[in-house]
Amino acid sequence: MATKASRTAARLMMSPAVLLLFGWMIVPLVLTVYFSFLRYNLLTPSGNPFVWFENYYWFVTDPSFTAAMINTLVLVGWVLLITVIGGILFSLLLDLPMFGQGVIRIMMIAPFFVMPTVSALVWKNMFMNPVNGFFGQIAAGLGLPPIDFFGQYPLMSVIIIVSWQWLPFATLILFTAMQSLDQEQLEAAEMDGARPITRFLYIVLPHLARPITIVVLIQTIFLLSVFAEILVTTNGGPGTSTTNLTYLIYVSSLLQFDVGMGSAGGVIAIILANIVAVFLMRMIGKNLSL
Amino acid sequence: MARAVSKNAKLRNTAIAGSVGFLMFLPILWVVILSFKTEEDAIRAPLEVLFSSGWTTENFATVQARSDYLKHFSNSVIIAVGSTLLGLLIAIPAAWSMAFVPTKRTKDVLMWMLSTKMMPPVGALVPIYLIFRDTGLLDSRIGLMFILMLINLPIIVWMLFTYFREIPNEILEATRMDGARLWNEIVEVLAPMAIPGIASTLLLNIILAWNEAFWTLNLTAAKAAPLTAFIASYSSPEGLFYAKLSAASVMAIAPILIMGWFSQKQLVRGLTFGAVK
After folding, report:
1. Is the model more confident about A45 or about A251?
2. Domain holding B207: CATH number?
3. Which of A17, A19, B16, B127 is most buried, by CB atoms within 10 Å?
4. CA of A98 to nearest chain B CA: how many angstroms apart?
């Protein structure tokens, strides 16, 4: 029973949040699009002439753009694969009857709360360093040649670090979703003689289809923006072997001071993220009943 | 009906899940151990580190003396807590009105707010950087607080909305019938029921703001740098000093790790926007 007065009050109470978010959405967007049409470098004052799509042309035809797009796809793809499969296995494991489930779950979830710069540096130095790192020491102890992670497999090393950070997220979401699985259905299937693998394929997996899709979509949004892990471990190198789209835009705008080029890259990143966002929003919207 | 499970099966499950959990946790555990070792011991083989070397707490003092941990810690606290409180101040009225006085457009407004979260930060980097440079906000805690408030505002509104919606509307209507004014309604009836949800929202958003590592790295230098940037300064060549890097890392993550353990449930609610229950 909303009166006219309470509706007015409600509108007033919403306005700060709405206005702020509107400004946050529209101001950077308009400026980024505008800058992307200018020849605008902070180091070379040129009067910032309007050049239409010149920045886009140069940004897209640069070989490092192709490399960055491939690296972005490889990074997102591998991390999704590892975290979703790992997350399903972990949540199945956690769902079994056991002692001390709370403690074990906390240990599995903990990496998510470690800030990106810490996890990247800890993995790079204390674990992946071929001489003094944990893995190198173990390899030496076993008489095996150590792996020079960042020298030989730089992108794969970044993928391992990012996967370690996001595996807990997938685990937690899928485990939560698994709690709402109908136990009686599982028991009935078991009594009818369905083997564990059959029960998983025909009961558990279909139940998890929606949460898995949500994990994939949410993670994709965040993984397209991986930045700190690359900045503190490889600076995008060697060459461009670990440069993703986010890092490439950072290089053009904040290291080369090319505002126009960086903005053109920014617009491309926004378009990419929006393709994923459309699907995510649709799924969330379906679940929101008012 | 819970099924009877043999003790042996339970022990076996515990062993497998425990090993997996231990492996996931190992990097954190290892950093904690190394932070209490001398530099010479920290680069020895894992078994020697564990069993044939002493313990020391001097790394923590060294890190504080060399790179002023406390300054960055206080920056992190001010930025994370400040942005969250500011966000709550703006989000509580908005979420309250959407939960209790919903209109035809409430769903659209919520979905639109969420869509602002989908914008990749790098798409806003250039204009925000230039605006900050021209207004003197670069490397300031106020500027960063404001940006982090904005990027987390959709999550805060959304989380509060889902909590507020669980408060039965009938109770509010009954108070209204009794002639309670809006202010009394909020303070005496709504607040006690809303506080748990607000607390959870606060907790999750402090964690998110504390660990945010795109804007904090790009918009700060020496003065306003929080712990994310403080650790980034150890990337080279200090990264080779394991004991000191470990001590710095432990000091950067310990406060938030403890908060994180209390907020596992909120994490699901806050980051999936109610899409997984």
Report:
1. A251
2. 1.10.3720.10
3. A17
4. 5
Q: Which pLDDT does position A141 carry in this prediction? A: 87
A65 touches chain B (CB under 8 A): no
If asked whether residues B18 and B55 sit together in one domain, one would say yes
Question: Residue A206: enclosing H or E segment and its boundaries?
Answer: helix A205-223
Q: How far apart are CA B146 and CA A192, in angstroms?
A: 59
B34 and B108 both lie in a single domain = no
Instruction: Report the number of distinct structural domains present in chain B.
Output: 2
- pLDDT (tens digit, 9 = 90+) per residue, A104-152? 988 998 999 999 999 999 999 888 988 888 898 888 888 888 888 888 8
Of A13, A210, A254, the CB nearest to B96: A13
End-to-end CA distance of chain B: 22
Q: Are B44 and B148 in the same domain?
A: no
Structural tokens at position B149: 């408030």
Do B85 and B42 belong to one domain? no
B81 within some domain: yes
Phi, psi of A258 (to 5 degrees): -90, 90
Fold for domain A35-287? Answer: MetI-like fold (1.10.3720)
Residue B73: pLDDT over 90: yes
Helix (H, G, I), strand (E, B) or coil at A9: helix
DSSP classification of residue A200:
I
* A24, A110, A245: residue with CB nearest B257: A110
Instruction: Search chain A and give the residue with CA nearest B249.
Output: A118
B38 in the same domain as B125: no
Q: Count of CB contacts below 8 A, A vs B? A: 319
| Token output for B271 | 């980051």
What single letter denotes the amino acid at residue B81? V
